[in-house]
């Protein structure tokens, strides 16, 4: 009786393995190519946006800068490819420029590179190359590794648009006042970065100190968290405003990347059901 039960259990397990093997075979035969085609389609749509933007020197998108909550920063930016070709800004922050409006423009001869877009494009190209030229046998682990590799590049491309490198921002990056006309005064920082599908213009007013201010000195103790080391000195942030402007081309690229990631994730989830 004992051997009969063992044999029955072994037979049942063999049948289950065979059934799972057939299901996996069916999944790979019917779902892999459509998924790869879908990923390619979505990546291609994002890729076309980046390629068109980087090659068309005269293709400039003008985006308005404004906030319903504040008039501290207004104007517009012109983006072409991975660069801001122009930015006209009107800045009015409390305590800055004696309360008067300050106007300045990014010089066309010194465009501002948005490295997040360039990085995202680079990762998209890596995902594209893996998709187009990657060779792998049609078994589960190889397919899984292939999809995970593509997904990793896509996710890093998406992350590049959502996460700005702190090394590229104040106080780690020194603002070049000569990029603007008229030149920015020493107590004004202007920087740009990407936040998802938006371009962000950020203006900060600072007060520089030779030595670290103390609670008994220039600053109150409660404000010491606003002090940063900058250009060999100590900078107190006295005012700040950030304004976002939606960028249609970025939104299209981000949508393509996101949909491609979802397609990869869905097939990987199905493959995970097979041990």
Describe the fold and architecture:
The chain is of the alpha+beta class and about 280 residues long. Helix content is about 45%, strand content about 25%. The chain contains 4 helices and 10 strands. It has helices at about 1-55, 115-135, 140-160, 250-270, and strands spanning about 60-65, 75-80, 85-90, 100-105, 110-115, 180, 190-195, 200-210, 225-230, 235-245. The strands form 2 sheets. Strands 1, 2, 3, 4, 5 and 6 form a 6-stranded antiparallel beta sheet that branches. A 4-stranded antiparallel beta sheet has the order 7-8-10-9. Strand 7 (about 190-195) and strand 8 (about 200-210) form a beta hairpin. Helix 1 packs across helix 2. The protein is elongated. The two termini are about 30 Å apart.
Spell out the blueprint of helices and strands.
Elements: H1 2-55, E1 61-65, E2 73-80, E3 83-91, E4 102-106, E5 112-113, H2 115-133, H3 140-162, E6 180-181, E7 188-195, E8 198-209, E9 227-230, E10 233-246, H4 248-271
Antiparallel strand pairs: 1-2, 2-3, 3-4, 3-5, 4-6, 7-8, 8-10, 9-10
Helix pairs in contact: 1-2, 1-4, 2-3, 3-4
Pfam family, one: Rogdi_lz
Protein name: RAVE subunit 2/Rogdi
Average of pLDDT: 88
> Which spans have pLDDT < 50 for at least 5 consecutive residues?
216-224
Alpha-beta classification: alpha+beta
Number of β-strand runs: 10
Strand content: 25-35%
Rg (CA only): 27 Å
Silhouette: elongated
- Distance from first to last alpha carbon: 31 Å
Helix run count: 4
One letter per element, helices H and strands E, the order comes to: HEEEEEHHEEEEEH
